[in-house]
Specification:
heterodimer, A: alpha+beta, PmbA/TldD fold, 2 domains, B: six-stranded antiparallel β-sheet, 9 helices
């Protein structure tokens, strides 16, 4: 795969020269230029009919400087050397105006210079090369397949595709050109009980992926056929399932649900900028503060968490981050103890972590936004030779087996969370019984991970994730993956959401 | 902010795109936006910036000679488009319409109307909008430093100017300023925290020193710490928290979903609960409404839709908006409807409007938050809510957290700060359990303000707000 020619044919070298030279002349200690073209598509079908098809392309450039120890940033859309130089002037002006509010001079961790590099993510069929008619017909056929079943009143189908092209240049000499592609497809079936007015939904559990259209035309990576076959009966069962009895249960959690719990309670909690308070007024801080590094017991000894931006097909995966740092993998939690954070160049230098080096977590969601520390692929390691999902279920006397993510919420220090799921099956004496509905699990992060008795083997591992991780002001959205095996938790509080509503 | 190159004006792009169109109908929307922002943490600046962008969206309508009722729409939007790259965009949009096939919401495009200020250039903002604000913020930070506390926050100003033209003669222009400041104060050890959000159109009305003084007072309140368990408490929700809950209810109020039997407003057999009371046993019968001309909350007086879904239709672009009562005197009056969903349900047309107002008494009269607190014998006073997500659409049960100050009120006085809680509550259910309501005032929804800036809400005292569990977060 190569980078889109419409992007490489832009005057990237001239833009870099114009912006960086002007910034240098104006006295900037650091300057970088980013040019990005982000192409996105959303296809939505309702009951097999096109609801909306939206194509967008966002192109722009921005210059970030450190001037007199203060950040300055300016973004625009005209891809001309004059405009690039003007943005460098504006960025320096922003730094000057902001200087009175800045008490902490900005210093960036030194990083090796990579010169000219090209990196392209791993995919087979670029979704933007596939005619819209084919993509629409594909999801229409899947919608109709579900609608044919008794009890399926409505089907929503959605497909999203993104192609992100980026050029990064800085005063140090980096000239990095990258392209990545990601897609997400989901179908939600709705059942309505005409007598009582009750309704339930069931969504497919295929994850968003750093893959192309090939993910939807084969069952090699995700078994769409089996999922679409099973969905109508699962939905019918859910509509008439008993409402869960609240109380303490052992939980066996499938990766299609657990990825989001990892994201919220570990991914965000181990972002160093949060621990330092940079997000205190917005996304929040973290209970996992820097003074606890190396000592905080995050979870049980079977808990091992890595951060990475290199996993093939991962949504956070890229060759170099938005500060020109080569991406890598590192430990965040080892044998249950907090051992690492997610870093960018400024905060790595500020606290001297990781030998004063970034681990490549700077990301901006478009040329118009400034890079901030964003989440890597944060993943729970499976146990080598570990148990299957069935074996984990067999260890439970009274519990729930939870599949698919749905509702999620966590507090600003990442302690107290509440999650629901697409479906939950009662486990009695080591065996799966039928579904229960209206369930939510609620816990405190370290209690929850401390109650993790076992993680499944590599055979249970799935790479889940999201296109929609929000952080920063102005708000930015980042894609990120989370790998997880199935895992077993003891004694977790289950709520009944109908009782919570006071009904 | 000056542009160094001679680029086509938004009006020229609209006219040229319409001229290039070979579709049966077309709508062209040009959005020109400028933004300036400052962000600070731990008493120092963290990030800042200015940006300028322009997006051109072309919606092509094709009917293959079969009439408007069977037409298809294709939507393609791009930034950085100029006259030389415009035709490619128009053709891509036409191709998208051909590929999409007939749309359920197909309709005639809206007939022509011209804004009086159509010819005016885009309005712009830049970093100088903070010329008065930044030094005052510097002063507030100095005071915080002297006092051993920490300030965190964000200020943003955006000016978007929209030009919407159509093959049917629409030429509509709307300039929308949007701004806000959020200020968070923490004690030096970060164990106590207070927050305020201020919406503003131009920063001339923001008194950041006064805001920081109010937060300092709240940090004082928090010096006495009272631990309370989970449970149902009489709770005063300030206007920002009411906005958080009611904006979500508004986003859940599509007529189509209700007719499909999949919303809190559904009844059995495809019926909708129009005319039914949401007030329950509460003596307070609220009105929830939108009005593009509401003073201080002015927003676009016409539909601008970039995609079709349960809430809007691209065929409705340019449709005139007026005042709409969603709930009137405690009874469900309207749900968000496009021309197509309204006709299909034989219900009134009620397009979505970009502001929301809740009134508990005519004209929004009522006591202030301070008076409401003073009238609370024993209960909680919240600062704001956070991380709100839907748990169950049937009841519209939402979960979320309290944040940056839950205060215990006894005999009308704040006596200390309580731990944070996770709540599970439905905004629709809350409307039936209002014990007392305050006066309606302009407020900033902390949870949704990024996407929905223009709200005016009263404070509400709820008799039995459901705090589901304790959160150790501070």
């Amino acid at each position: 795969m190569t980078v889109d020619e419409s992007f490489t044919s832009l005057p990237l070298a001239e833009l870099a020269e114009a912006a960086l030279a002007r910034a240098r002349d104006l006295g900037a200690q650091h300057a970088d230029l980013r040019v990005e073209t982000i192409r996105s598509q959303g296809i939505n079908l309702r009951d097999g009919h096109v609801d909306g098809v939206v194509d967008a392309s966002d192109s722009g450039l921005s210059v970030r400087v450190v001037h007199d120890g203060t950040w300055g940033f300016a973004a625009g859309v005209a891809l001309t050397p004059e405009s690039a130089a003007h943005l460098a002037e504006q960025a320096v002006e922003v730094a000057r105006i902001s200087k009175p509010v800045n008490a902490e001079p900005v210093v960036l961790a030194p990083e090796p210079v990579h010169g000219e590099q090209v990196w392209v993510s791993s995919y087979e069929v670029n979704p933007f090369d596939v005619p819209d008619t084919e993509k629409i017909a594909h999801f229409r056929a899947w919608s109709e397949r579900l609608l044919r079943h008794e009890g399926v009143a409505h089907v929503d189908a959605e497909f999203q595709a993104v192609q992100e092209c980026k050029f990064f240049a800085d005063l140090a000499g980096n000239r990095l050109t990258q392209q990545r592609v990601r897609t997400e497809g989901a179908l939600t079936a709705v059942a309505v009980d005409e007598e009582t007015g009750a309704f339930e939904t069931m969504r497919t559990i295929a994850p968003p992926v750093g893959r192309g259209w090939e993910f939807y035309t084969s069952d090699k990576v995700f078994d769409w056929d089996a999922e679409l076959d099973a969905l109508p009966a699962l939905l019918r069962e859910k509509l008439t399932a008993p409402s869960v009895e609240p109380g303490e249960y052992d939980l066996v959690i499938h990766p299609s649900n657990l990825w989001l719990t990892i994201h919220e309670s570990i991914g965000h909690a181990t972002e160093l900028d949060r621990a330092l308070g940079y997000e205190a007024a917005y996304a929040g801080t973290s209970f996992a503060t820097l003074d606890k590094l190396g000592t905080l017991r995050y979870g049980s000894p079977v808990m091992n968490i890595t951060g990475d931006r290199v996993t093939e097909h991962g949504l956070g995966t890229v060759g170099f981050d938005d500060e020109g740092v080569q991406t890598q993998q590192w430990d965040i939690v080892k044998d249950g103890v907090l051992v690492g954070y997610q870093l960018d160049r400024r905060i790595a230098q500020l606290k001297g972590l990781n030998g004063g080096r970034s681990n490549g977590c700077a990301f901006a969601d478009s040329a118009s936004h400034v890079p901030i520390q964003r989440m890597a692929n944060v993943s729970l390691k499976p146990a080598e030779g570990g148990p299957s999902t069935d074996e984990l279920i067999s260890r439970v006397r009274r519990g729930l087996y939870i599949v698919g993510d749905k509702s999620w919420s966590i507090d600003m220090q990442r302690y107290n969370f509440q999650f629901t799921g697409q479906r939950a099956f009662l486990i009695e004496d080591g065996e799966l019984k039928g579904q229960v509905k209206d369930f939510a699990y609620q816990a405190t992060t370290t209690d929850f991970w401390g109650a993790m008795e076992a993680v499944g083997g590599p055979g249970t591992h799935v790479l889940g994730g999201s296109f929609q991780c929000g952080k920063g002001q102005p708000g930015q959205v980042a894609p990120v993956s989370h790998g997880a095996p199935t895992a077993l938790f003891r004694g977790i509080r289950i709520l009944n959401t109908v009782q919570e509503a006071g009904k | 902010m000056s542009s160094r190159t001679t680029r086509a004006t938004p009006q020229q792009l609209v006219e040229e795109a319409l001229k290039l169109s070979r579709a049966d109908g077309a709508v062209v929307i040009v959005d020109a936006a400028t933004d300036a922002n400052l962000r600070w943490a731990n008493n120092t600046l963290t990030t800042n910036g200015v940006s300028a962008g322009q997006q051109v969206t072309v919606i092509s309508v094709k009917n293959g000679g079969t009439g408007a009722a069977k037409s298809a729409a294709g939507v393609v939007g791009r930034s950085g488009v100029d006259l030389d790259t415009l035709e490619d965009l128009v053709r891509a949009s036409e191709k998208a319409a051909e590929d999409a096939g007939g749309a359920d919401d197909a309709n005639e495009l809206i007939a022509g109307r011209v804004s009086a200020d159509w010819d005016a250039a885009p309005e712009e903002t830049d970093i100088s909008v903070f010329a008065g604000f930044a030094p005052a913020l510097g002063e507030a930070i100095e005071a915080a430093r002297a006092d051993g506390s920490l300030l965190f926050g964000y200020a943003e100003h955006t000016l978007g100017t929209q030009y919407l033209g159509s093959s049917t003669g629409l030429r509509l222009r709307h300039a929308q300023p949007t701004g806000s400041v959020q200020l968070n104060a923490k004690s030096g050890d970060r164990s106590r925290s207070a927050w305020a959000g201020v919406p503003t159109a131009d920063f001339s009305d923001v008194d950041i020193i006064a805001v920081s003084r109010d937060l300092a007072r709240r940090l004082e309140w928090a010096k006495r710490r009272i631990d309370l368990p989970a449970g149902r408490y009489p709770t005063v929700l300030p206007p920002t928290a009411v906005a958080d809950l009611l904006v979500y209810a508004y986003w859940s109020a599509s007529l189509r979903d209700a007719k499909d039997g999949r919303s809190v407003f559904s009844k059995t057999g495809g019926a909708v609960s129009f005319g039914e009371s949401v007030a329950g046993s509460s003596p307070i019968k609220v009105t929830l409404r939108s009005d593009p001309a509401a003073p201080g909350l002015e927003c676009a007086p016409y539909v601008a839709a970039y995609s079709s879904n349960a809430f809007q239709s691209v065929f409705d672009n340019g449709l005139e908006l007026g005042p709409t009562d969603w709930i009137r005197d405690g009874k469900l009056n309207a749900l968000v409807a496009t021309r197509q969903t309204a006709a299909a349900a034989n219900a009134p047309l009620a397009p979505v409007v970009d502001n929301l107002i809740l009134e508990a008494a005519p004209g929004g009269a009522g006591p202030s938050l301070a008076d409401l607190t003073a009238g609370t014998d024993d209960g909680l006073l919240l600062t704001c809510l956070w991380y709100i997500r839907e748990v169950d659409p049937q009841t519209l049960l939402l979960t979320g957290l309290t944040r940056d100050g839950v205060y215990k009120v006894e005999g009308g006085e704040v006596v200390g700060e309580v731990n944070n809680f996770r709540f599970n509550e439905s905004p629709i259910s809350l409307l039936s359990r209002i014990a007392e309501a305050g006066r309606t005032e302009r407020t900033y929804s902390r949870e949704w303000g990024d996407y929905f800036n223009r709200t005016a809400m009263p404070a509400l005292r709820i008799a039995d707000f459901n705090m589901s569990s304790v959160s150790p977060a501070s």
